[in-house]
Amino acid sequence: MSVHNLDIKRVTTHTIQELKNKGEKISALTAYDFSMARAVDTAGVEVILVGDSASNVMAGHETTLPITLDQMIYHAGSVVRGVKRALVVVDLPFGSYQGNSAEALRSAIRIMKESGAHAVKMEGGLEIKESIVRILSAGVPVMGHLGLTPQSIYKFGTYAVRAKEEAEAQKLMDDAHMLQDIGCFGLVLEKIPAALTKKVSQSLTIPTIGIGAGPDADGQILVIHDLLGITNEFKPRFLRQYADLHTVMTEAIARYVDDVKGHDFPNEKEAY
């Protein structure tokens, strides 16, 4: 096992820009709690996203829409306390920034003040420009997110690959440049054709982080529960599963149940 870049004292937005400039890929993963964040950080991941995917993997909701700002702040604070080195980015949840830039700013400031996180992430392009500008003007770093934007799932009606048609691909390219121009420090590209990812990444000076977007983004991100095989129902084409923790955990728990039922746990050494 190799642990990378641990000589970096603290990863900042400047650090990941330098990684892109050097042509070194950026590793990113989600985390939602203290213990998992500590493991992800110790392994050398540069960016930890406290994703609104917590709505799915932590709370069991079908979509990312139900999770609240208070819940995101709770998860973000838990993660920040487990991290010594990675850049912690927090999703602004659905309804906390769309259509009202004053509310967007309040949401972002609450995340930064109450969780201690380092940046926020927002889904969308031109339609949320005003909210992003307002947050950036307060000194809060913003990461953009284009392509499949799960908070808009009911508009799209499907989790299929986005921007396959020329018009949508052009809008994505325009939005990407707009996000860069107004001051976003990076950009997640989700479930878009690999060729488009390459084109966008090469045309931007800020780093791109891909998920289901091919090998040519400047970095990659996966949901930690998917990578570790804790959730075993979700197996999209873009997921590489690095462990089968669902099996490991259920087998360990079943052994514990057997030991309790069989009067084997606790034994004499495990009692006071």
Structural description of this entry:
- This protein is of the alpha/beta class and 272 residues long.
- The protein has eleven helices and eight strands.
- It folds into two domains: 13-241, Phosphoenolpyruvate-binding domains (TIM Barrel); 245-272.
- 42% of the residues lie in helices and 14% in strands.
- It has an eight-stranded parallel barrel, surrounded by seven helices.
- Helix 2 links the parallel strand 1 (26-30) and strand 2.
- Helix 2 packs across helix 4 (69-82) and helix 4 (69-82) runs parallel beside helix 5.
- It is globular.
- The protein starts with 12 loop residues before the first helix and ends in an 11-residue tail after the last helix.
- The model has no long low-confidence stretch (mean pLDDT 96).
CATH superfamily of the largest domain: Phosphoenolpyruvate-binding domains
Let me know the average pLDDT. Answer: 96
- Number of H- or I-type helical stretches: 11
CATH topology group of the largest domain: TIM Barrel
CATH architecture of the largest domain: Alpha-Beta Barrel
Ends apart, CA distance between termini: 39 Å
| Total beta-strand segments | 8
Low-confidence stretches: none
Morphology call: globular
In the CATH scheme, the class of the largest domain would be Alpha Beta
- Which H/E pattern describes the elements? HEHEHHEHEHEHHEHEEHH
Question: Total domains, how many?
Answer: 2
Radius of gyration: 20 Å
% residues in beta strands: 5-15%
